[in-house]
Automatic annotation (TrEMBL), chain A:
Its main location: membrane. Keywords: Cell membrane, Membrane, Phosphate transport, Transmembrane, Transmembrane helix, Transport. This is Phosphate transport system permease protein. It is a multi-pass membrane protein. The chain crosses the membrane at residues 12-43, 63-89, 110-131, 143-166, 187-208, 256-275. The keyword Protein transport does not apply. It comes from Fodinibius salsisoli. Part of the binding-protein-dependent transport system for phosphate; probably responsible for the translocation of the substrate across the membrane. The gene is pstC. Signal peptide: none annotated. SUPFAM superfamilies: MetI-like.
From TrEMBL, chain C:
The keyword Nucleotide-binding applies. Keywords: ATP-binding, Nucleotide-binding, Phosphate transport, Transport. Residues 30-271 form the ABC transporter domain. Coiled coil: none annotated. It holds the Pfam family ABC_tran. InterPro entries: AAA+_ATPase, ABC_transporter-like_ATP-bd, ABC_transporter-like_CS, P-loop_NTPase, PstB-like. Residues 1-23 are annotated as: Disordered. This is Phosphate ABC transporter ATP-binding protein. GO terms for molecular function: ATP binding.
Length: 291, 269, 276
């Protein structure tokens, strides 16, 4: 009987350990392949060159163009998702009636469950042509359209995390503000938002991390031209889109071109890893505040 | 202002979906569902794609369900409040934030190459299973935590062992919540494209897969492939395939939401 | 679970047996010897020793937070699950140290049943609630289980009220019925000791009266330890009363005596309602 219990516990522990193996696996394979890559390409070139042309005859291995592309789409996405998501969160938490909230929230969640490849289609087929009517010089592939669509996709993510942060602010604070004669608007923006600021910062950081790692929207609608610069109207390429581009092609295993996707991957991983840990750290500290 | 923003979001969503339906619904037919892919847009179908998606769905569930629920039980019921448990928690939170395409790189190196599975359904499903594992673990833990501790105490006080208590009391009481989480996670896996592309799922598969070690494609990759082509006819195919993909996703999410609703009502102890 | 039982340290392998008979020829079911309990750095119980006599009702009284529930839960090792719990001293059931590493905790809990503060039936049928303790022992004999379920429900004076809907959800019963179901569930395992942690605190007066009647009836066959914050209840049903204050044993003795002529002023003050 006791032996059975012990075996079950071991099995369950193994299940939990799979997550550790996953992390170790990710770090190991990225590190090993990246070491292979950097034994052939100098790290200085990788970090400073403004050309990324591993698939051309004239090869150059500067990550900066992919980074600028990633940065560009991320900034656009966040400047859509953060204000809109936060506004929705404040509205749902401070203004909407309970019943209305119960209807709106699941509807907003739909935005989050639509597969990203579908958003890519939206960006390419709807948003880009639509934007072209205002910005005629916009290319068919550009950073602006997928950036905006990515922003729309992340809205429910931002709004639900911010809403959690807002609703964990003690009600007494709100009462106090009303008691001093503040309006609803003043209470929301001068009291509730600052009080929930750390939670909102967490949602913003996680949203950035999400946008950096987003793949299909940019792979479909942003183009495949690594370009160092910050013009949102021309085709660019993000880190993630590059990995997809190489994976779709016939790059022989073990070649330098094959290793580039791991060099790109480890760059992506480092960024998201740092962001996720910062947000986790803030969350841990902040959770104690109101308990 | 807040209401405007909310409505605007929903409106955009409605426009997007309306556009898809407008473009794609005319292309939907029985033939579209049972035709193999072709160079000619009007002869192409999504047969291999949805069969592939079905395979991936089933295998991913079989792999991730026991692993995720097992890990959730361990962390909630066996894990002690020590550094190891804390580490496991941070690790899972971190994994949940790793971009899906990185899982693709992991799957490519470990399953496809190291374990020699090739770009098979099994390799793809294992990759997706790891990807959704954090989601299943977190929702399992939440569901277990919602079971009142008085139930656990009552069982233990009658002489039940830890596992007997988990199996006879905790799991039945939290099963609805666990299942909801699993369905949501699987629905996420069904929509994933990037990791499968990296693992090597093909855009063009001439025949439907017969077993877990066959090469495959899935609906999202088929859509990606069609979207990437310049001809307008393929875009229409993509729209039609998207309707099917959205249907699958929405149905799964609908079931999950319904179950969560029912389950929350039931556990009014 | 860090059960740090110092008494069972070096001499752990030797199970100690103690004389169980006192001068008046009563036998002790349970003996607690020099018990200290800690939650982390906080000491919840300070050096308590006491003996519980066979086939009697012993009531534990004292203000909230005095450690009476903690003390009760030592007897079936329910504190083992609490983070930071550790203890010194020995608890002997029929002369055997229950914190000895060789003791099978599950077996122990079959001998020492427990009824909780809030009725906590499983979200199953009435029948399955009572049968649960038997099923987890691996008993499959349907007739045996049914017979034991009926017998236990009768013992808990619940049978007449539920005999026609044994398949009904236990959660549909009233609070008082639920608590008697929990009693039946415990009795079905045939324990020799019953621990009750404020079993009537969540019930109305009529249900409370029924439970008290039941407890007095059960005394004939079981040794009962009951925690209560209800002074009258302790006075009505118990043979012996233990008064705890801030984790220390203030007074222990015959209920009659404690309620009419306590030795300590503090006991007097608590019983007459001047504090607590």
């Amino acid at each position: 009987m006791n032996v059975k219990e012990k075996i079950i516990e071991k099995i369950l522990a193994f299940c939990a350990l799979v997550t550790v193996f996953t992390t170790i696996g990710i770090i190991l394979i990225l590190a090993i392949e990246a070491v292979g890559f950097f034994s052939q390409v100098s790290i200085v070139e990788f970090l400073t060159s403004t050309k990324w042309t591993p698939l051309f005859t004239q090869k150059s291995y500067g990550i900066l163009p992919l980074l600028s592309g990633t940065f560009l789409t991320t900034v656009i996405a966040i400047s859509v998702a953060l204000p809109v998501g936060l506004t929705i969160a404040i509205y749902l938490n401070e203004y909407a009636s309970k019943r209305f909230r119960q209807i709106l929230k699941p509807l907003l969640e739909i935005l989050a469950v639509v597969p990203t490849v579908v958003y890519g289609f939206f960006a390419l087929m709807i948003v880009t042509p639509f934007l072209k009517t205002f910005i005629p010089e916009l290319s068919g592939f550009n950073a602006l359209s997928p950036g905006i669509v990515m922003g729309i996709m992340i809205i429910p993510f931002v709004s639900s995390l911010s809403e959690d942060a807002l609703s964990s602010v003690p009600n007494s604070l709100r009462q106090a503000s009303f008691g001093m004669g503040s309006t609803k608007f003043q209470t929301a923006f001068r009291v509730m938002v600052p009080a929930a600021s750390s939670g909102i910062v967490v949602s913003a950081i996680l949203a950035v991390s999400r946008a950096i790692g987003e793949t299909m929207i940019v792979a479909i609608a942003a183009g495949q031209q690594p370009r160092f610069g910050f013009d949102p109207t021309v085709p660019i390429e993000t880190i993630t889109a590059y990995i997809v581009q190489v994976s779709m092609g016939d790059v022989p295993h073990g070649s330098l071109a094959y290793k580039t996707i791991f060099a790109a991957g480890i760059t992506l991983f480092i960024f998201t890893f740092i962001l996720n840990n910062i947000s986790y750290w803030i969350k841990e500290r902040y959770q104690e505040e109101y308990e | 202002m807040g209401l405007t923003a909310t409505i605007l979001c929903l409106l955009i969503l409605a426009i997007f979906i309306g556009f898809i339906i407008y473009q794609g619904v005319g292309r939907l037919s029985w033939d579209f569902l049972i035709s193999l892919p072709s160079r000619f847009a009007e002869r192409s179908g999504i047969y291999t794609a949805w069969i592939g998606t079905l395979w991936v769905l089933v295998l991913t569930t079989l792999i991730s369900f026991p692993l995720g629920v097992g890990a959730g039980i361990y962390l909630e019921e066996y894990g002690k409040k020590n550094k190891l448990n804390k580490f496991l928690e941070i690790n899972i939170a971190n994994l949940a934030g790793v971009p899906s395409i990185i899982y693709g790189l992991l799957g490519l190196e470990v399953f496809v190459r190291l374990m020699n599975m090739g770009s098979s359904i099994l390799a793809g499903s294992l990759t997706l299973a790891l990807l959704i594992l954090p989601i299943i673990i977190v929702s399992t833990r939440e569901a277990i935590r919602a079971v009142p501790s008085t139930i656990k105490e009552a069982s233990v006080a009658l002489g039940a062992s830890k596992w007997q208590t988990i199996w006879n009391q905790i799991l039945p009481a939290s099963f609805g919540g666990i299942l909801t989480g699993v369905i949501l996670a699987i629905s996420r896996a069904v929509g994933e494209t990037a990791p499968l592309i990296v693992v090597g799922a093909l855009a063009y598969v001439p025949f439907a897969p017969q077993g877990p070690l066959d090469e495959f494609t899935v609906l999202p990759i088929q859509i990606f492939n069609w979207v990437s082509r310049p001809q307008h006819e393929f875009a229409i195919n993509a729209a039609a395939a998207i309707i099917i993909l959205l249907l699958i996703t929405f149905i799964m999410n609908g079931i999950a939401v319904y179950m969560r609703h029912r389950w929350q009502r039931k556990i009014d102890w | 679970m860090e059960v740090k039982s110092e008494a069972s340290g070096p001499k752990a392998t030797r199970v100690k047996t103690e004389p169980r008979v006192n001068s008046e020829n009563q036998t002790y079911k349970l003996r607690a010897k020099n018990i200290d309990v800690f939650y982390g750095d906080f000491q919840a119980i300070h050096d308590i020793s006491l003996d519980i006599i066979d086939n009697s009702i012993t009531a534990f009284i004292g203000p909230s937070g005095c450690g009476k529930s903690t003390f009760l839960r030592l007897f079936n090792r329910m504190n083992d699950y609490i983070d930071g719990f550790s203890m010194n001293g020995q608890i002997l059931l029929e002369g055997q140290d229950i914190y000895d590493p060789s003791v099978n905790v599950e077996e122990l809990r079959k001998k020492i049943g427990m009824v909780f503060q809030k009725p906590n039936p499983f979200p199953k049928s009435i029948f399955e609630n009572v049968a649960y303790g038997l099923r987890i022992q691996g008993i499959k004999d349907k007739d045996f289980i049914e017979q034991r379920v009926v017998e236990s429900l009768k013992q808990a004076t619940l049978f007449e009220e539920v005999k026609d809907d044994l398949d009904k959800q236990a959660l549909a019963l009233s609070g008082g019925q639920q608590q008697r179901l929990c009693m039946a569930r415990t009795l079905a395992v045939k324990p020799s000791v019953l621990l009750m942690d404020e079993p009537t605190s969540a019930l109305d007066p009529i249900s409370t009266a029924k439970i008290e009647e039941l407890i007095t009836e059960l005394k004939k066959k079981y040794t009962i330890a009951i925690v209560t914050h209800n002074m009258q209840q302790a006075g009505r049903i118990s043979d012996n009363t233990v008064f705890l204050y801030m984790g220390k044993l203030v007074e222990y003795g015959d209920t009659q005596k404690i309620f009419t002529n306590p030795e300590k002023d503090r006991t007097q003050n608590y019983i007459t309602g001047r504090f607590g």
